[in-house]
Specification:
By secondary structure, this protein is of the alpha/beta class. Helices cover about 30% and strands about 25% of the residues.
């Protein structure tokens, strides 16, 4: 990537930024960590020192007048995404936004409209889609039609909750966070399944949820979707798994199935296995060689410099719409909601 490095400002210096974003921006060719923003003085100082940020501010609004900042990476609690993104886009900055794009579909659409009006990139941080085995599974199902016509999708994502990895993340349990396990885990699997089945989109969905004993949001959710031609999808989303985690997506088709199993522990790898029916009626199993992983921050830089975004803003908005409908369904005792 030629030219001057792109100045990145990371807004929010919590565990998500510390674990996933700041280390990448520190080391990524073509980028420069121009600034960090956090209301917490200790986190600001730590981020500046550890990751080499050129500036640190308490109020993110100060960054929008800084000519050294060309792009903003939003790592804030979910309800704060829309305000920061729309302001940054209006100020001419490109935006990378942690998932979910917003907590309300109207806010997600407003963010997309702001990006279009400003002529700037808005990219949701749907990192799971960019993993090599996941990209390979998407190609197998959507592009190669390797398992025929998809008829059923089964997905599970479960772990012990957001505070297991970092007790400071207990803000997730506050009703003001906008949602619980469905809002936290749903964007990952909804985005991957949506990419696999595109351009086919669900027609309706329903959901039931169980409230967390630790706060005002749900710990568990079950979501069902119906696509055209009676293609069915089921999603189990949970913060109730003790001592481990489980993440898998299985797509059944008329000629076979594809299974994605995500790494559950250190040392394990995400895998993609394809099973097809042979001429004599038996099954043939093949572990598919993964595509190359794509680093989301690097893909964001590529989009800024003119390449097609790895994840479209509209994809992020669509996921928010599905989540919003799921909550409305759960409020109505699992009533079907039209999409």
């Amino acid at each position: 990537m030629g030219g001057e490095p792109i100045g990145i400002a990371v807004v929010g210096c919590g565990s998500t930024a510390q674990r996933r974003h700041l280390p990448v921006w520190r080391d990524l060719a073509g980028a420069r960590l121009a600034a960090v923003a956090s209301r917490d003085p200790a986190r600001r100082a730590e981020a500046m020192e550890r990751y080499g940020a050129a500036n640190a501010v308490a109020d993110w609004r100060q960054l929008l007048a800084d000519p050294a900042v060309q792009a903003v990476d939003i790592c804030l609690p979910h309800p704060l995404h829309a305000e920061v993104a729309c302001a940054a886009l209006a100020a001419g900055r490109h935006v990378l936004c942690e998932k979910p794009l917003a907590v309300a579909a109207a806010d997600a659409r407003r963010m997309c409209a702001a990006a279009e009006a400003a002529g700037r990139v808005l990219m949701p941080f749907h990192n799971m889609r960019l993993l090599g085995p996941v990209a390979r599974a998407i190609r197998a199902v959507r592009d190669e039609r390797a398992i025929g016509r998809p008829v059923l999708v089964r997905s599970v994502m479960a772990h012990g909750g957001p505070d297991v990895s970092d007790p400071r993340r207990r803000w997730f349990f506050d009703a003001a966070a906008g949602g619980g396990a469905v809002l936290d885990l749903g964007p990952h699997v909804f985005d991957v399944v949506g990419a696999m089945l595109a351009p086919v989109r669900p027609e309706r969905l329903r959901a039931v949820m169980r409230r967390s004993p630790f706060g005002g949001v749900e710990a568990d959710g079950l979501v069902e979707m119906v696509f055209p031609d009676r293609l069915l999808a089921q999603f189990t989303l949970s913060w109730s798994m003790v001592g481990n985690r489980e993440s898998a997506i299985t797509v059944h088709g008329t000629e076979g199935h594809v299974v994605l199993r995500f790494a559950a522990a250190a040392g394990e790898t995400t895998t993609c296995v394809q099973v097809r029916r042979t001429a004599d009626g038996t099954a043939s199993s093949e572990r598919l060689e993964p595509d190359a992983d794509r680093e989301p921050c690097a893909a964001f830089l590529d989009a800024i410099t003119g390449k097609t975004p790895a994840v479209a803003a509209e994809d992020g908005a669509r996921v928010v719409e599905w989540i919003e409908r799921a909550y409305r369904s759960a409020e109505g005792d699992g009533a079907w909601m039209t999409l």
